[in-house]
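Hello forum,

I keep getting stuck at the same step: I have a sequence, I want structure tokens, and every attempt I make locally crashes halfway through. Rather than fight my setup again tonight, could one of you with a working pipeline run this one for me? It's a single chain of 491 residues.
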Amino acid sequence: METAIRDGHQSLLATRMRTEDMIPALELMDSIGYHSIECWGGATFDTSMRFLKEDPWERLREVKKRLKNTPTQMLLRGQNAVGYRHYADDVVRAFCERSVANGMDIFRIFDALNDTRNLETAFEAVKRAGGHVQGTICYTISPVHTVDAYARMADRMVEMGADSLCIKDMAGLLSPMMAKALVSRIKKDHPDKLLQMHCHDTSGYSEMAYLMGVQSGADVIDCAISSLAGGTSQPATETLVAALAEDPEHATGLDLKKLGDLSEYFRGVRKKYWKFESGLLGIDAGVLSHQVPGGMISNLVGQLREQGAEHKLADVLAENARVRADLGYPPLVTPSSQIVGTQAVLNVLTGKRYGSVTKETKNLAKGMYGATAQPIAPEILSQVLGDEQPITHRPADDLAPEMETAKADIGDLAESVEDVLSYVMFPQPAKEFLQWRKEGGGPERELVAAIVGAMVIGEKKAAAPAVAPVALASHGDAAPWRNFGRMRQMR
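Reply #2:
Ran it on my machine without issues. Output:
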């Protein structure tokens, strides 16, 4: 599976790639023969509206229109859909139904805590809408995360109707030998289920893990075209294609010349987004001990920098491991990674563990995100919750339907069910985007200021004012300049 237009740029370029930079590559991508192309979900939905003034639903339609031979694939956070909290069942059902209707084929569905109860509604909704359900294991390391535990989770997801299975290694922690053991066990238990592997290259493990996984029975591996690969992204597509070409049993048959052309295209695209480069390039073997994904480290550094305490990063990483153990060893993936990390920062900066507790930490301890792999010790629960008692039922059982209320709240700014769903997921960014769209679109305020300033300078220098948009168009977020003449109301 090719990840360039979802996880590739999410991992390396803060998810800032615009649809207009994806479209020219899609016909070539469609001709290559990928199993699927990941193009949606994860952080793309939020970022499209919040920073790019793009409709994520329109992106999906535009991508699907050009992928005539290759299935689309997305990342769905179970009961969180594409947002950061649990949504009511009516929201999850509507989101899955409209996603299929707008062009989504394969739904990789995971839960941050690996609590399969949080997958039930999404599984049922995708299957009802005619989509493909990929049940997903979030891989992490702890005393309670064993091959047997992961195998039981796979069993449960198959019982729930999963069409395929995925091992999702978001931090690059899956060692080659564990890949062999885990893939072998799942394929032994479910030989008829396609098994996909998703690894990040953070630690340097991933190419080795992929090769061991493929030799042990994995059917699909996630890669990013080389110009958007490595570091916190996935391993390079061309490298794995070339490596497997020498193995008749596992050769992919993908055309390295076409892949080279695709890489060259995205190499040019990447230059436009230079200001969003993560800076986390190459191998970070430290993740094998602290287990903190690259994106999470940059977030921790940002929090510490705001407090003038960047020098305490090592202390925070050590505390992060302790907090994770205290809270039942949640995998470090959105949103649990942010919850654990923020609490670790607070513990270090205040000098008192759990002296100040975030609302999200309380909700995690209370069971509002689901059940943790290991029960939280009573003394930790007492520190975090006081006299409150955790829940033991599925968290979404406590949520009242949301769609009708949201539809009334957003009013005539919403022109479709899709608009209402965008508003439910991200109220403020969606409302601002929908208002902007209703007013006809156009340059964001920052661009207006830049254009006016450039024109004033140009007049003073007697230079051609046309220079301004050319300069702007070469910098990531300024790319909408090229769209001003063809902005239209999105349905």
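The chain has 22 helices and seven strands. If your local run keeps crashing, start a new thread with the error log.
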